[in-house]
Design brief:
- It is a single chain.
- The protein is an alpha/beta fold.
- It folds into 2 domains: 4-15 and 99-220, Rossmann fold; 19-95, Orthogonal Bundle (Transcription Termination Factor Rho, Rna-binding Domain, Chain A, Domain 1), CATH 1.10.720.
- It is 47% helix and 11% strand.
- It has 8 helices and 6 strands; from the N terminus they run E-H-H-H-H-H-E-H-E-H-E-H-E-E.
- It has a 6-stranded parallel β-sheet with strand order 3-2-1-4-5-6, with helices on both faces.
- Strand 4, helix 8 (185-193) and strand 5 form a beta-alpha-beta unit.
- The chain is globular.
- It comes from Venenivibrio stagnispumantis.
- One of its GO terms (molecular function) is 2,3-diketo-5-methylthiopentyl-1-phosphate enolase activity.
- Belongs to the HAD-like hydrolase superfamily. MasA/MtnC family.
- Its EC number is 3.1.3.77.
- It is an enzyme of class 3 (hydrolase).
Length: 224
């Protein structure tokens, strides 16, 4: 029986292309300007300190910016990078330059579950702050009301089963009563290992899997 649901964002409830082709290039284009303009902002200072800890030495501002650009190039899911991206996106959303895109089938199903009283949580490599921002500015308006909580890489890697065990503990539910939906096989494997129920969302034809596979949320029917 499914009592609680955990969803991934990109490739699952929003298109990979939105994050890849809109959000990431936007944050990269504004990276240097944003950091230099907000150098005295405590959140930016915290990011710079975190970068120093990651690399094991004190970097100048320019070196820190170059390090962030390097991590972007390597597609690293690293906390200081995710945090600064979230801060840049916040500015973009508030200015109206950015608007998030949700799949209609996912939005309708999440809404249906919420109305049935099912708790829905988000687990994404983007920071919790960035997740809340993403859901604040969608084509359906602010949809944060759909979610009971958010998790990011601070809880651990999405490809390690201990992260999912920790989520189960934090949301106070037995792993076997939690359904995890993602488009990434390794994440689903880790969740399964932790005892979660799993479904792969294969919107792009990547439907080879040892997990149950759907191509959109309508196929879930009355699963819950």
């Amino acid at each position: 029986m499914v009592k609680k649901v955990v969803v991934d964002i990109e490739g699952t409830i929003s298109s990979i292309s939105f994050v890849k082709d809109v959000l990431f290039p936007y944050s990269e284009a504004h990276l240097e300007e944003f950091i230099k303009k907000n150098i005295n902002n405590p959140e930016v200072q915290e990011v710079l300190n975190h970068i120093n800890k990651e690399v094991g030495k004190n970097l100048s501002v320019d070196e820190a910016i170059n390090q962030l650009k390097e991590w972007i190039k390597e597609d690293k899911k690293i906390t200081p990078l995710k945090t600064i991206q979230g801060l840049i996106w916040e500015e973009g959303y508030k200015s109206g330059e950015l608007k998030s895109d949700l799949y209609e089938d996912a939005y309708k199903k999440l809404k249906e579950w919420k109305e049935k009283g099912i708790d829905i949580y988000v687990y994404s490599s983007g920071s919790v702050k960035a997740q809340k921002l993403f859901f604040s500015h969608t084509q359906y308006g602010d949809v944060n009301y759909l979610f009971s909580g958010y998790f990011d890489t601070n809880i651990g890697s999405k490809k390690e089963s201990k992260s999912y065990k920790e989520i189960a503990k934090q949301i106070n539910e037995k792993p076997e009563n939690i359904l995890f939906l993602s488009d990434i096989e390794e994440e689903l494997n880790a969740a399964k290992e932790a005892g979660f129920q799993t479904i792969k969302v294969a919107r792009y034809g990547n439907n080879e899997s040892k997990h149950k596979v759907i191509t959109n949320f309508e196929e879930l029917g009355d699963l819950l």
